[in-house]
Amino acid sequence: MNAPLLWIGVPLACAALFWLRSRRRGLAFSGGALTLLLTLAALWLPLDVPLQAGSLAFRIQPEFQILGRRFILTSADQFLLVLLYGAVSLWFWAAEAAGWANRLIPYGLAFSALCVAALAVEPFLYAALLFEIAALLSVPLLVDENTPRHRGVWRFLILQTLAVPFILLAGWLLSGLEAGPAGLQTARQATLALALGFALLLAAFPFYHWLPMMAEESHPYAVSFLFWIFPTVTTVFGLEFLDRYTWLREAAQLTLALRVSGLLLLVIGGTFAAFERHLGRVLGFAMVAENGLSLLTLSLGLKDGVVFFFLLLPPRLVAVALWGLSLALLQKAAPSLTFEAVKGKARSWPLAASGLVIAMLTLSGMPLLAMFPPRQAIWSMLARQSSAAAIGFLAGTLGLVLASMRSLATLVAAPADARWEVSESVPQRFFLAAACLMLFAGGLFPRWVSWVLPRVPLLFEHLGR
Amino acid sequence: MNSGWLAFLLLFLGVLLLVLALSWRWKAGGLAIQYLGLFWLVQPHWPLAVAAVALISGWMAALVLAITLATLPPPESGNLIWPGGRFFRLLTISLVVLVTFALALRLADWLMIALPVAWGSLLLSGTGLLLLGLSQQDLDISLGLLTTLAGFEVLYASLETSTLVVALLALIHLGMSLTAAYLLSLKGAAS
């Protein structure tokens, strides 16, 4: 038994099995239970330690070799596995309620396993190829057959494909730098290739257009899944680069590059979200702003920034999942997600509408909601380093708040004689209410995410320490 | 003539068909020829059996697209490359050939690789980007992506000889064509 087989091989095999049985009911339960088991295994199973189960003695090896290359998952990676499979589990349990279980469970499971494989492969630059395969696999998950256009999906594929050559080339140049003395010129070329590769991979400015396009054309629940998982794993992949190369980590321009690109995304995302008239596209722009927030957080310094980046992930996960679920329900109730189409839907789908607004306000960093404590801390640290950056942060945040207010006003704008009714089914009500409660609980008791703090430094050799 | 230059000529013929042809049959043929050129250029760096994987996966990708397109109604003329004229496309591909030649001289010198490999790689990548930039048609976008990746594969073969990379790249080529086939068939069903 070895760890990569358990957390990559088993999910891939199960994804194939789920795909074969994707017409059956209960898929969400099977997928949710499997990912929950994988999460618990990552939480409790010790790696590379002799274990005894009755008369059976075994050891979970951290390494798996294939075609001369290795996949390695050590005990330090278990925190990341808990986070990823825990998040996937959350999405899977509510997939039936969102009406997208048949697609999400098989393709989403394979997608997640490939993301884990990308973080486990050695040499780690091959991760770019695995991300590309994951992106290809995400297409059937995302595409809504009732939508005639798939421009967002195509653009996503184009940008991910173009990222592959840059990252592989950068990796090759960096290996030359590692092997012996190489010129400043090579370091510059590697940095340029790396910066371009990551700008494409992370949907940085000006490569962010696929997010709102995809959010408009694809199923909202699938989109929300992709919007959380993909930027998270690609950012962790980027952090691995920084962790490995000292000269890159200590480059004077790194902070400036992260801050400028982060601020651009945050301000653009917030501003466009404020003026958008399609709820799906608002999600897309909010995620542009969130990606910006991640980069901005990392610009605070690679000790605190990395810790704050991981502190943002759990509340963002719940908020994005809630946003996706609410949109999926509203999409069923209305012909489209334009403001005109969803006007007054809060009267007939009150929980979905409330969930949507609470998710939006959470991502805007409103007090009493789960994103407030980390966002407040980030803003405060940012203000100490740069007033201009703090003002940019405020502008982006105000844009998101305005988008939330406009959405709320649209959803409740029903004729006075319209009757109140609850159209959500019992499971839908349960998942919406649970997610809302989690967001409020996260705001009222912010220390619940403190379990992240001691684990982050273990993930990396140099970062977060 | 050096066999590298023969392979380059094959690549050149392939990209000409991809850019100039209007019929999907010629385009699929161009893609298949392109993969033959790729095989020829990478086989000095990779073992023959490994290089054959790249060739077979490329041909399978071309075949998947051809089979899908054979079952679909012809695309609307309004969705073809803009501007649609062959003369314009001939001009753009000529520009790509010239620019990539200028760049290939420096690339070959920098990476210490043969000129046909450097030029072939850049020509494929440039043509792929050209297709991506000029067309909004699903077929052209998928051909553009496959061609861009093939261009990088030619270059990367001279730098890295890992079997896992070859396997993953073959998977990507196949996956890309299957994805394109899926999206094309969805559009075909809708129309």
Task: Give a verbal description of the structure.
The complex is a heterodimer of chains A (465) and B (191). With 465 residues, chain A is mainly α. Chain A has 2 domains: 1-122, no CATH class; 123-453, no CATH class. Chain A is 71% helix and 4% strand. Chain A has 20 helices and 5 strands. Chain A has a 3-stranded antiparallel β-sheet. In chain A, β1 and β2 form a beta hairpin. In chain A, α13 (279-298) runs antiparallel to α18 (387-412), α14 runs antiparallel to α16 and α14 runs antiparallel to α19 (426-444). Chain A starts with a helix and ends in a 6-residue tail after the last helix. The mean pLDDT of chain A is 92. Chain B has one domain (3-73, 86-190). Chain B has helices at residues 3-20, 24-42, 48-70, 86-111, 115-134, 138-157, 163-190. With 191 residues, chain B is mostly helical. In chain B, α1 runs antiparallel to α2 (24-42) and α6 (138-157) packs antiparallel against α7.
The proportion of strand residues of chain A reads under 5%
Backbone structural class of chain A: mainly alpha
Overall structural domain count of chain A: 2
- Characterize the biggest β-sheet of chain A: 3 strands, antiparallel
H and E order of chain B = HHHHHHH
Instruction: Specify the overall morphology of chain B.
Output: globular
Oligomer: heterodimer
N-C termini distance of chain B: 49 Å
Total domain units of chain B:
1
Query: Which residue ranges of chain A are poorly predicted, with pLDDT under 50 across at least 5 consecutive positions?
Result: none
What gyration radius of chain B follows from the Cα positions, in whole Å? 16 Å
Strand content of chain B: under 5%
